[in-house]
Amino acid sequence: MRATAGNAAESVSPPINKTFTTMPLSQPVATVDAVELEIMTGLARTPKQISPKYFYDQQGSELFDAITELDEYYVPRVEKEIFSAHRDAICEAIGEGVTLVEPGAGSCEKVKWLLPDLEPSAYVPMDISGEHLQASASALKAEFDELTVMPQVCDHTQGIDLELPVEDAPPVFFYPGSSIGNFEPDVAVDFLRDMRAQMNGDGGLLIGVDAKKDTDVLHAAYNDAEGVTAQFNLNVLDNLNNLLGGNLDSDKFEHHALYNDEQGRIEMHLRCTEAHAARLAGHTIRFADGELVHTENSYKYHPEEFVELAEQAGFEQSQLWQDNRGWFSVLYFEPA
Ligand SMILES: C[S@@+](CC[C@H](N)C(=O)[O-])C[C@H]1O[C@@H](n2cnc3c(N)ncnc32)[C@H](O)[C@@H]1O
């Protein structure tokens, strides 16, 4: 994802030409002006903030994939355990002939937990990280050549504008990895409502949600010994430099992640290690020694807390699957 600063008409994500279907593949994610406004507004706040969606340039997507391999980051392992133990029941709940839609699909690896048992009419992976999505969707198509795959490059925080490649195949949203935890709870309800609005009374939502648990386990998951999560967090500064033109210096920051018990969330920050000024998009930004820049939240929900949010968005719970320790939940919802 690259922007050309100064040209409002330029799209942030280059158009992708290769298609698997006759349908259009991608759309511009945002104008440079919109990206600049969002980033500079966040950096003008106290404390400074950067939206987690800016983690995901090509390097950030690769670093996230490396995080999923870490011993400490239990999420993909435990979630996979649940899918392995309950695959038949999950596929039965979803049913045949649906359009599986995956916001933030990343490497498109988790959909393989459902294929080929689930036989969707089409798969629509969506992601903001265009190059990475394109490569992942190509690899998936090579493995499952009968499947209609229609990747869509988009920023799903700007609303979901779904194009269904197959008629009469209702959308079932697949949103694993507890990515829903990255939204503030009220914004999560809005996002769930956006998905619900695509359903026309028919469809569903299969979602993975990380539960509250022992603080040491959570702390280790976001502070791995190899420092991969630290690299991932610091990489956001390089992405901002590339997007807007700047000299934010990742050597002058360190990774800082903690569990905020009161809020029920992991918080990731970048802590400035020496007072300095940097340039971004032609602006000067001053950082104080020890200042924190907030880069991500990851809210943790007991299943009943999450069901309450989904109900506010117009869903009713139909199924819940968990691992033995209750560390992670996979839930299936239908439109109420
Ligand atoms: C935490 S990763 C999860 C990847 C995968 N779903 C999983 O469970 O392992 C978040 C994914 O969402 C994408 N993403 C983040 N913010 C986004 C946004 N606003 N719009 C679209 N995709 C986004 C990222 O590029 C990344 O692939």
Features:
23% strand, Rossmann fold, 7-stranded mixed β-sheet, single chain, globular, alpha/beta, disordered N terminus
Major beta sheet, specifics? 7 strands, mixed
Radius of gyration: 20 Å
Separate helix tally: 8
Structural class: alpha/beta
- Estimated share of beta-strand residues: 15-25%
Distance between the termini: 38 Å
Mean pLDDT: 91
* Morphology call: globular
The helix content is: 25-40%
Number of domains: 2
Ions, cofactors and other ligands present here are: S-adenosylmethionine
- Give the C-level CATH assignment of the largest domain: Alpha Beta
So, the CATH homologous superfamily of the largest domain?
Answer: Vaccinia Virus protein VP39
CATH architecture level-2 label of the largest domain:
3-Layer(aba) Sandwich
Order of helices and strands: HEHHEEHEEHEHHEEEEEHEE
Can you tell me the CATH topology of the largest domain? Rossmann fold
* Uncertain spans: 1-27
How many E strands? 13
What topology, given as strand order, has the largest sheet?
Answer: 4-3-2-5-6-13-12
